[in-house]
Amino acid sequence: MSFFHSLSVDETLKKLRTSLKGLATSEVKERLKVYGYNALKKEEIKKWQIFLRQFNNPLVFILIGAAVLTAFMGHAKDSLIIVFIILFNGILGFWQELKAISSMEALQKLAEERTVVLRDGKEVEIPVSEVVPGDVVILGEGDVVPADIRLVKSTGLLVDEAILTGESVPVEKNADVIHKEDTPIYKRENVVFKGTVVVRGKALGVVFATGKNTEIGKIAERAKESSPESPLTRALESFSKRWMLVLFLILAVILVVAVLEKRDIYDVIMLIIAELVSAVPEGLPLVVTFVLVIGAVYLSKKKVLVKYLPAVETLGSSTYIVSDKTGTITEGKLKVYSTFAIDKEELYNVAALCNDADIDRGDPLEIALLKWLEEEGINWRLLRQKAVKLWEYPFDTKRRLMAVGVEIDGKKQVLVKGAFESLVELSLKDEAVEKLSKLHDELASQGLRVLAFGVADVSDDKFSIDNLTIKIVGLVGFIDPPKEGVKEAVNTARKAGIRVLMVTGDNPATAAAIARSVDILKEGERVLKGTDIDKMSDGELLEALKNTAVIARATPENKYRIVRVLQSAKEIVAVTGDGVNDVPALKAADLGIAMGGGSQAAREVAKMVITDNNLSVIVEAIKTGREIAKNIRKAIYYLVSCSFGEIFVVTSGFFLNLPLPLQPVQILWINLVTEGVQDKTFAFGKSDKDPMNEKPKKPEEAFFDKKQLKDTAFAAVLMGVLVVAVFVYLLGHGSYERANTAAFTSLAVIQWFNGIQSIKEKPFFANVIETFKVNPYMFLAIFAGFALQLAAVYLLSGVLNTVPLALTDWGYILASGIAFFLMIEVKKWFST
């Protein structure tokens, strides 16, 4: 139903089966049955589905299997502990996801206004939700447009469409124009759209689309699409599947050997339970969440509010920032940038008197003029007091000018302001005009919006605007200026391997000028228009984007498609936006970033909100995101190497035909209590080098690249060998209970030393003081872990099946920890 801009008024009325008197009340009831209410349906979300989704993870499946086997073997205590862990993690994830679901609520609020329509030939005020196609709506200054409307009559109508198109300047509307059917939204002068605002003038129009059929409704449908998973989530899922495969291979080998060697079935099942419990780094989801929470708190101090925790890490993985212009790169407020005065005094007069604005309300161009006058030291209020306004010719969208008749000190004048071409038609064609014409074209080529100002002396009020002869007294160029710090931020992002792509509804000249001024647009890079994109296939668009820095005259569909095309090439895309037009792209992006001063709809669907609308804040947040990603990488190394070390210990005991070196409940204790204290400290770690000097890494490589896997495997095998050595030695010199307790404690001690070596990639002794500064909390955690392990050995023997250890046993245990620490240190010296 988007073809009404190509129909005449009569054709529109006929097509919609209505008239200028409006609809009959009885007809409205029938149409409500057909079209429904003018509201956007809320997406229904079932909480039980969200809850069950928390357990759809391979690692959780492993733990569930361990819990079932443990219960089957009669170890109810161990089984309950495992079930508690599963439920605790699930409830935490459920709570986080519930907080993030609100994408449609803001869009519904657009339907809570009231509007004036003609019903049975009379003006009535009704809720916007009751507007139907065929309704005739009356619009005035300040009104929010209730539906998509084909204008029937318009007088000096200016509409702010920034919420829909991103255009920073109000656009002129004209009911008498008829467009071609393929005319893009931003050029449809005879149509106003739901959610946009009337800045000036008045109009009568007929509704042709309501609810989900409006342009905003179509955007709302896009918002229902699910957002892509974060890079961290994808990386963890990939790791889980690989880890599960490795575990099954180990279990398969164990079962084959057990069958061939006719091992006792009870021992084999207990071994499998121990393997399953060892395989799952239970603390991983919690520690990752904790690192993200601490990162979110830190970002909040930098005016970045995180709504969806994994978004904290996504920041650091971003390879593209698809940014709007207005309010992010620029101030979002027009400012006088350049002036040329033939008669400065007369220019001041026209700027002050041919102006309906006040300093804080009115047309943005006119407000900018008043602020410019103040900067020039001109008291525009005093000028208005001295002048007597005789009459006013309101802004004419056809002629693109406005005029006022004034009397100043007994002298009558007509003051005119408008498009240069319009004023030239009313002026004498002389050399001065030719020079002004060249200057006008030069200013326009810089992306400025240019207004001309003219004056005509008159003797009385008996004249027509058509036969008026004016003298042009000056030109003024306006710009939406770049924000402070944006240029530096763009260059920082470029150095970090992140491309900034500016997507805006503004015209190409303005967009290019702004982009060039902040170094987004470099020599040899392209500026594309939305219509150019419409003609390209996805493959052609992807190729074009490699050398494109600016997309001008972009539609919401263009921005959405750009995001999807970049994602198809495995790019991690962050999108900024503040209008309803940005909602589809914000939702589709890997990371949607809304501006705090933007629309409620944009803030609701975004995963992150910037309270200081500035690209520099986003780039600074990316730096923090990368530091957080490094902390997560360290935590993953620590937890996975510890889990694999536990598997090595248990598996080695089986193949060496030894009793079980570690019991399942002891492994759970280490994973959740001893090791679980230490792993939380990674949230507070600092980076020992500038993360913005590195290029973005693919999610799989950021957390699980070859180096990470090699380091993890080396630490795990070394850990396993040392713990088994302690177990075998003490098993040969005492009871199983003593050897088991020593192996259990030796594993805890080695994991403490592993945590110290995880603080940074450089060797510990390369700069000991730096190591303490990078993460002093790690050492505090070791003291806490030591106290907990003492409790496990001497106070909780009935729960953890331990026996008190002698001083000599502690000597063996400490020696294993120091040996582990030194061998990792030697490896670092040779590999760095």
From TrEMBL:
Instruction: Cite the SUPFAM superfamilies for this sequence.
Output: Calcium ATPase, transduction domain A, Calcium ATPase, transmembrane domain M, HAD-like, Metal cation-transporting ATPase, ATP-binding domain N
Q: Name one GO molecular function term.
A: ATP binding
Q: Answer yes or no on keyword Plastid.
A: no
Entry's transmembrane regions: 55-73, 79-95, 243-260, 272-299, 635-656, 713-731, 777-797, 803-824
For whether the record's keyword set contains NAD, the answer is no
* Superkingdom as given in the UniProt entry: Bacteria
Domain Cation-transporting P-type ATPase N-terminal: residue ranges:
3-75
Question: Localized where?
Answer: Endomembrane system
Membrane topology term reads: Multi-pass membrane protein
Listed A to Z, the keywords are: ATP-binding, Magnesium, Membrane, Nucleotide-binding, Phosphoprotein, Translocase, Transmembrane, Transmembrane helix
Q: Show the InterPro entries listed in the entry.
A: ATPase_P-typ_cation-transptr_C, ATPase_P-typ_cation-transptr_N, ATPase_P-typ_cyto_dom_N, ATPase_P-typ_P_site, ATPase_P-typ_TM_dom_sf, ATPase_P-typ_transduc_dom_A_sf, ATPase_P-type_domA, HAD-like_sf
Q: Which GO terms describe its cellular component?
A: endomembrane system; membrane
Principal localisation: membrane
Task: Tell me what this protein is called.
Answer: Ca2+-transporting ATPase
Q: Please report the organism this UniProt entry assigns to the protein.
A: Desulfurobacterium atlanticum
